[in-house]
Each structure stands twice: as structure tokens, then as C-alpha cells.
Please model this.
Amino acid sequence: MNVVLVSSEVFPFSKTGGLADVAGALPKALVQNGLKVSVFSPLYKSIDKTHLTLANNVDIDFDSRTINTNIYKTTIDGCDFYFVENEEYFNRDHLYGIGAHDYEDNALRFGFFSKATLDSLKALGIKPDVLHSNDWQSALVNVYLKLFYKEAFPNTKTVFTIHNLGYQGVFDKYYMNNLDLPWDLFTIDGLEYYDKVNFLKGGIVFADAVTTVSKAYAQEIQTPEYGFGLDGLLRKFSYKLSGIVNGIDVDVWDPKMDKFIDYNFNDPKHKIKNKNALQKLLDLPTKDVPVFGVVSRLAAQKGMDIFSKSIKELLESHTDAQFIILGNGEKDIEDTLAEVANNYKNKVSLNLKFDEPLAHKIYASSDFFVMPSKYEPCGLGQMIAYRYGTLPIVRTTGGLKDTVKNYSNRVKNPTGFVFEKYDSQELTKTLKKAIELFNKKDELLKIAQYVMKLDYSWKNQAKEYIKLYKKIYG
Model:
């Protein structure tokens, strides 16, 4: 089976979030399962094309003009990665915008990318059995395929994956002209959304199958609370909607081989050496207290508003614990955490940045990993934490609900801590329960050893996608 995956970012070439991890790791796992896989992504300024080869030169008819486009290629782990070059659209310092401000021409940038992908497939002679697009940035692939490319790809089926319904690609309706889309599609059954054009909606309507990144999230997005205005549409198309939990790249996240951590290990009883090394690195007291790690965008969606209140409550009660936080995001949350860190220098290390080596150290050194998300389509942090014998503390939503079993006397083989109500006091209670478990060393070790054996590798999760591909292709 020949699969083409289309993504606006792909690790290790470009990344702003979890989509890049999926686009980098899933293809490798599909190849390992015997499929032929190609990936298409934009050639951003940050990608060094001297390490790529020129695969083709293609004329793309778009926005009432013909744009001559180079297509570059490299092959990694048996998977072909293709990059669409366009100096006007992609030669920029950032992928989608500067800070919280999106580039004003994102509709054109990613409309072009979607159309260029299909023209490139024609020029390269690639005829996919399945074309798998991801999020709003590549959603128009499904629309263009059905409208203009059925003769070139008569047997190609489409899968569209929603990684986060909160980002839909909603633009002024007059972009319909620039995007070469017929106005008869601008209806409630097509791309129209409150008198604007909605890319993600188009991806859903025109796809043969729609997936999201956990079974629980697939159900949640069909409700007004989590549907972001598309819950009615998703209920209408529920017959083609399913949830497949993401995997993690177990070669990148491997405590036995991880080059970023101070001491490699295969049993969590040896984690104390990493904990002490990280405490020294971050100028925290070197002692065996509960360490809570956070690697996250510091945003309300990630629960960081209730987390910032919760740790303040805990520390004010003289709790002997340490919090190591890595990430950046919303200024009010950053400011609140900075105040807490300043008041409790011996208990809180706040690192307002993205730092891959430090992220690895936090996973390997923490006793608990905190993810109190308001909503979480899948979440990778809890699965990465398992690899290092670190117990996640999560709210029961989306993929967190699917992958974490709450610690209690009634639960067999618990894997972490789960709370339900989105509230700082509930989170504080849950953190206190974790501290109680920390003081039961033998029991904590037993659970940590158990979670290290859990398999959330892409090799396993890829099989679910292969089942879906075969189902729609026939």
C-alpha cells in the first residue's frame, strides 16, 4: 500500500508542537509495517536545503497566476520526505506567525501548499492509495482532490486527522477566489462557517475518513463543550469519525540510550542519580523530596492557570516538594509562575523557554509529571513520562482519559493520578495524594516499574491506521 502523509510541520525538520512529532514518527512506523510512505511539507527557512536533493520543478496554477516551484527530497528510515519551496510564502522566521499573531496570508500560504502537493504528486508519478492530511493547514488537499484531481488520482482515498479542533483555519470568504474554489461550495454543507471560509470544515466534509488522536476526544468533539462550533457537523459525520491514540518515538525517548540525561537506566530505582544531577543543574537543594515536572505550553488550555494557583497553595502550606517547569506561553500565567518561583527559590525552578535536552532531564528525574489540561486531544507527555518511570497527574479529558489509570485501592495496575473537576483545589488534593504515595517507597517503585513496561510505541499505534487505510481502500 502506498500512503502519502501531508503535514505543515514534520520533526526533525520543522516543529511547533505535537503534529510534527506525529508526522515524523508515524511514517517510520508505517514503513516498518511494510507500507510505502512519502511525506509532503513546506520548505521553511529553518530547513537547510543543502542536505536535500532537487526532486522536480513544477508549475502550480494558483491565485490567478502560475508559480514555478522546486520540490526537494530526502530519505530517512525508508521514508521519502518531500519539501515544497516557495520563497514568498515559506521563507520566514516562523511557521505560522510571530508570537500570538498569525501571518495575514496564511490562507494563501497553506492553500498553495495543499494544491502544490497534488501537482507535485502528479509530476513525480506518485499515485497514493491513501492521502493522509493533518489539521487545517493541509485540509484543502481533500477539497482540491475531489474537485480537480480525480482524473489523475481516480482510486485515491483520503484520511483527515484532527489534532486539535480549537485551530480551524477560518478566513474571510473572499479568499474563495484566491484559492480557486467555486462559490457553490460556500454553503452550510460545504466550507461556509458564519460567513467565513473554514479550512478544517472542508477537510472533514471531503475526507473519506476522519480521525482524531484519541477515542475519548473523538466523542468529546461531538459535544458543544468541546466542539468549537463544529459539533453538529461532527455528529453528522460520526459514521466516518474514529479515534486513534498517538504513539511516541521510543528511539528518541529511551532511558537506556537517551543522550541528554546524566545517567541511563532501565529500572526507576536508579532515577535518584538523575534527580540529584538535575537539582544541582537548576540550583535546587539536593535531597530526596517529591519532584513534580512540567514540560508544557504555559496556557490555560494546558491547565496552567489552575496549576499556578495550586502550587502556590501547596507551597504556602510548607509542603516539602520541588517543581521543575519548562515552557513558555501566556504572559499572565508566566508572570504568576515567575512570582511563585521568586518567592520559593529552593522549591521551584521556572525555565521560560523550549529546551529539548532539559525536557529529557525532567522526564528522567521527576517522580510525577503534571498535565492538568482543560482539554487534551491526545497528549504525549504522559506516555513519555511512562518510559522514564514517572507517574503522570492528569485531568480526565481526551487522550489523558484513555491512557492514565487512577491510583486507588479499587483500580488494578494504576498508572498515575486522575482528577475530574477543572479546579485548582482538586488539583491540589491530587498533588497531595501523589506526595502520600511518594512516602510509600516500595509501592511507588512497583508502579513506576510497571509503567516503564507499557507500550505506546508508534509500531503498535500504526497498526490502527493501517486497519483504517485498508478499510477505506477496500
Observations:
- The mean pLDDT is 95.
